[in-house]
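Example 3.2
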Amino acid sequence: MSTPGSEWLRGAEPTWCPGCGNYRLLHSVAEALSELRIEPWKVTLVSGIGQAGKLPHYLRVNFLHGLHGRTLAKALGIRLANPEMTVLAVGGDGDLYGEGGNHLIHAFRRNPNICCLVHNNGVYGLTRGQASPTAEQGSRDGLHPAGTASPAFNPLAVGLACGATFLARGFAGDAGQLGSLIVEAVKHPGFGFVDVLQPCVTYNHHNTFGWYSERVYDVGEDGHDAADFDAAFRRASQWPGYQDGRIPTGVIYRSHRPTYEERVPALSRGPLTEYVVDRARVERAAEEFL
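Structure, written as tokens:
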């Protein structure tokens, strides 16, 4: 008997480590797409380099796998070319918070209609476990035997400061909540951002499934108002660098403003993919640079 979302899986065997949180994230994405009832050919997943970047390979969708840190730049290009395409950007904390941190800041600011899922495990898993931007200060690994010197990057607080309209955090150990957050992020008219706590069972032996399970809590069950900016900032500031040992999950902040695509004049005539190209005009324009 098939399981929810199984029709979205290619059937290829993932090459992740046994027990990796990526497996749950993969199935949560498949289940979310199944619930959303979008035709597979109308979905494009974009990823960069890293273990997280392999996720689109296992789904029956269009995908673009490109350079490290350029996940959101490619995703935005696809949305501008065809705003009718559902676009999901998928990457690790190194890909999207480290190499791609500049693109993330401007995605928050621009508010394109893209769902962004970040595998946050505190390490660069593909290159043998050195600390990522979200590693806790003092974390030890092969490259930091004395512990990391810098405090952890806080994506939710940065998103609030940059004008984000949908900020959420999920946990790979809570499949039900994670799937619902992905559905909400895709449906959100704007940049739907989900930071996913995804333990690395091979290189991060501190932030384990058990460690997170003792600390995470759902803000939706704690009386949180996601429309309250100040309340959202207090929740976002709880972790990393948490004050009381608790890690908030769920929808942290939600607001609405026009999407980037709605503000681009060239798209007022419809998707660029439907434009008829006048080759003579293109050739004349090119001749000006010869």
